[in-house]
Structures are given as C-alpha cells and as structure tokens.
Amino acid sequence: MKEIKLKVPDDKYRFFIELVQQLGFEVSQEAEILEEHKNIVRERNAAYRKSPDRLLDWEKVKKEL
User: Fold this and answer.
1) In a domain? residue 58
2) CB 27 within 8 A of CB 20
3) CB 17 within 8 A of CB 25
4) What DSSP line would sit under the chain, residue for residue?
5) How confident is the model at residue 1 (pLDDT cuts 50, 70, 90)?
6) Is this model's pTM higher than 0.85 or not?
7) Is 35 within 8 Å of 27 (Cβ atoms)?
8) Is 64 a member of any domain?
9) Are 55 and 45 spatial neighbours (Cβ–Cβ below 8 Å)?
10) How many domains does the chain have?
11) Which of 63, 33, 38, 47 shows the shortest CA–CA distance to 55?
12) Residue 65: inside a domain
C-alpha cells in the first residue's frame, strides 16, 4: 500500500475528506504543530518554571466558577 501526503485548502478540506472516504480510501489525519506554536508552549513552560506560584489551583478556580 502506498501513502500519499497532500495539502488541501482549508475551504475544501471537508469536501475532500468526504470524497476520499466515499471512494473507500483510508484517511489518516495527523495534526501538524507549527514551530510558532511549539515556541509559545516553550515560553509558557519557562515562565512557569521561573515563578510557579503565579498559577492558580484548578480545583479552587473550578469551585469559584
């Protein structure tokens, strides 16, 4: 079996997936994480490590909501 990687415009994505499925092909959707997004997570992790006391406890916040 061959594997093909395609780039599909956002506005045609749903149609393309439905078409491929109707033709009986297997669809594997892998999420690509942009380097820009990885950098944002790295920055947030670094900020947390510098001052973890700035974060709020989720259980306390949930009760207040």
Assistant:
1) no
2) yes
3) no
4) ---------GGGHHHHHHHHHHTT-----PPPPPHHHHHHHHHHHHHHHH-GGGSPPHHHHHHH-
5) confident
6) no
7) no
8) no
9) no
10) 1
11) 47
12) no
Q: How many residues does the chain have?
A: 65
Angle at 36 between CA 14 and CA 8, to 5 degrees: 20
Question: Within a domain: residue 37?
Answer: yes
Paired tokens of 4: 């093909």
CA angle 37, 41, 12 (to 5 degrees): 25
Give tens-digit pLDDT for 2-61: 888 889 999 999 999 999 999 999 888 777 889 999 999 999 999 888 888 888 889 999
Identify the domain containing residue 29 by its residue range: 1-53
Quote the CA–CA distance of 16 and 18 in Å, as a whole number: 5
Residues 57, 37, 26, CA angle at the centre, nearest 5°? Answer: 105
